[in-house]
Amino acid sequence: MSLAIIEKACERLRKQLSSDERVTVQNSANIDDVRRAISQIENHLAARQSLRNLDRLTPFLDAIDRLTKPIDILCNGTPFMPFAWAPLKLILLTAQHHVHAFDKLLSAYGSIGLALPRLARYGETFPDNHQFQQLLAYLYGDIIEFHTQAFRLIRKPGWKTFFSSGWGRFEHKFDALLQSITQTSELIDKETISLEISLAHEWRQKSSEHAAKQEKRMEFEQREAVLRWLEVGDSKSYQEDKLELLRSHCCEGTSQWLTKTRDPGMASDWQRPFSDLASRKARFRKICSMLAISYALAAQILRSLCIQMVDLAPELTSFIYDECVMSRSNPSVSCLKAIVPKLMTAFQDIRIIIDGIDEVSSSQHREIIQTLASLGDIQMNCKILFASQNIPTIFSSLKSKPQLKLGEKALSIEKDIDLIVTASLQELSDRHSGGIPESILARIKKSIQARAEGMFLWVYLILEIVKGEGSVDDLQTSIESLPEDLAGAYD
Q: From the CB of residue 204, how many other CB atoms can be counted at a distance below 10 Å?
């Protein structure tokens, strides 16, 4: 069981490492390799006149040195031993150029080192029993868990921006880890193993659960405060419901031609299949429909983007809370313009689709387009697609940008409409258990195709009318009286 605890902890850490870093860890023969790396880092910092008192690491390094022999016996030839010290080298090399993060990590490792056991009572001989090995496994697992959490903090996109808020979220867990290390070390040093080992697992579990509850409580309270700051009320759920409704209307196979468009100026990232876009890690895609926003102001859109990013990356809540809520900033356009690009750095790639901007008052077009387009200019990982009718107030603001004019893609649109009509009529036929003659279905399809003129909304409304007919006779009547335009379809 002791070895299993260590193996699980090492496996969690491995997942945070690249293949090259795993090799580096395995090839680290002893803690002297880490000491040499620390000396090199100290020289680099001295050359930059940025010394950070790396002596704070001495308690940790000395403690790991003391633990090497008993843990080596416990690992018994397995490849887990270097995980105690080697990750520290990688962490320091990554964080050395970020003063605040570097200081936090140095202090944390120093505290862990001071909490680790002295082992003074044991000399060169260590108890060869299950209880002692169990405590060592707990200790080793806690050390590796801290390495793992440290890697998580410094490996996310935009980690330098979010380190402070991320550390704030992590502090409850760190306190629990430090308490666990302290109590386990006391048991080892006091040689009270036989009396208290049965309680060790219980208080470790309770400490971990308490830290998790504290973290969740803090997350909930901060999220509520951020939502209030963003003034997000029922509009959020309304937007989600609207988006889900629009998604349910999608027909498989349509719009695939968009990903194959080779129009000059169209960014290659938009040309990749959307299934590929969705599969890549840390991908953020936001569809903002003006139908789902009762009043189309740039601030409202930016607020919506904020909350969508928070939903996808909850750790951003702490950042907004620290940067905006605690500073009592107002969620104005200027404030949101400053915070949104920072939030975007938490994602590898961002694709924002703004649909229906032509339904907003023309007096707001310029402000909205300039505000959102600036995000793409500031953040290289952000691309924005505006879907709209070609009206002067919109075209003038986007004329310098690459454009895809659907009016010039009539054949592709006709194919999409054909897919939609075919799928809907098949659904209608299945509902009537095949009782609708193929000739009538063919007439309906031909009639819709002849009058569609590229209007997807008209096609959707007509299909809803057709689906609502209860008999074959009613279907035949509806074919003869199909409305010619959207107004007629709504009547």
A: 19
Sequence-distant (≥ 6) Cβ neighbours of residue 233 within 8 angstroms: none
Q: How far apart are CA 480 and CA 205, in angstroms?
A: 72
Read off the pLDDT of each residue in 367-395 and give the average, rounded to a whole number. 86
State the CB neighbour count (10 A cutoff) for residue 163.
Answer: 22
- Residue with structure tokens 């880490």? 34
Q: Which residue has the tokens 């008993």?
A: 70
The mean pLDDT of 228-239, rounded to a whole number, is 65
CA 432 to chain CA mean position, Å: 45
Name the CA dihedral angle for 187, 190, 196, 197, rounded to a multiple of 10 degrees.
Answer: 50
Angle at 359 between CA 356 and CA 361, to 5 degrees: 130
Which of 93-107, 347-361, 436-450: highest mean pLDDT? Answer: 93-107
- Determine the residue type at 410: A
Residue 295: pLDDT band by 50, 70, 90 thresholds?
A: very low
Neighbours of 289 (CB within 10 A): 17
According to DSSP, the residues that pair with 383 across neighbouring strands are: 351
Q: Which residue has the tokens 């509902």?
A: 431
Per the CB < 8 A criterion, the answer to whether 145 and 112 are in contact is no
- Cα–Cα dist 443/117, whole Å: 84
What phi and psi values does residue 313 have, to the nearest 5 degrees? -135, 85
Q: For tokens 């090839």, what's the residue? A: 27
Residue 198's pLDDT band (cuts 50, 70, 90): low
The DSSP call for residue 56 is G
Contact 61, 34 (CB under 8 A): yes
In terms of average pLDDT, the best of 49-53, 250-254, 342-346 is: 342-346
In a 10 Å sphere around its CB, with 0-12 CB exposed, 13-18 middle and 19+ buried, how is residue 330 labelled? exposed
Number of neighbours of residue 356 by Cβ within 10 angstroms: 17
**Residue 211: Cβ within 10 Å count:** 20
Q: What is the tens place of the pLDDT at every residue in 52-106? A: 899 999 999 999 988 888 777 777 767 888 999 999 999 999 999 999 999 999 9
State yes or no: pLDDT of 268 exceeds 70.
Answer: no
Alpha helices for 231-258 (secondary structure H): 234-248
Residue 483 contacts residue 462 (beta carbons within 8 Å)? yes
Distances (CA, A) of 134 to 15, 63, 188: 24, 18, 10
Q: How far apart are CA 417 and CA 261, in angstroms?
A: 18
- In whole angstroms, give the CA distance from residue 86 to residue 80: 11
- Residues ≥6 apart with Cβ < 8 Å to 484: 451
Residue-level pLDDT at 104: 95
Let me know: does 157 contact 345? Beta carbons within 8 Å.
Answer: yes
Quote the CA–CA distance of 335 and 325 in Å, as a whole number: 11
